[in-house]
Amino acid sequence: MKRLNRIEGQVRGISRMVEEDRYCIDIVTQIAAVRAALRRAEEEVLRDHVGHCVAHAIRSGDPDEQAKKIDELMDVLVRSER
Hints:
GO biological process, one term: negative regulation of DNA-templated transcription
Largest sheet: none
Strand content: under 5%
Protein name: Transcriptional regulator
Oligomer: single chain
Structural class: mainly alpha
Low-confidence stretches: none
Shape: elongated
Order of helices and strands: HHH
Family: Belongs to the FrmR/RcnR family.
Radius of gyration: 18 Å
Pfam families: Trns_repr_metal
Distance between the termini: 26 Å
GO molecular function: DNA binding; metal ion binding
């Protein structure tokens, strides 16, 4: 939550920069920083998902649940590459 709150503040800051008609490159630089921060947040959530949800499916021994978790993970990874 701390990371997401920081990102939210960064986005509000970008909005203020646009309202204040700040230099375009400064705005683009801040947008790039937000995108990088979002990628790091995404990585953390994925790491948590693998560590808990996927690991739980593996331990369960249920092949359907395992396949479901693997499919979910692959879908999100493929989408993030686009």
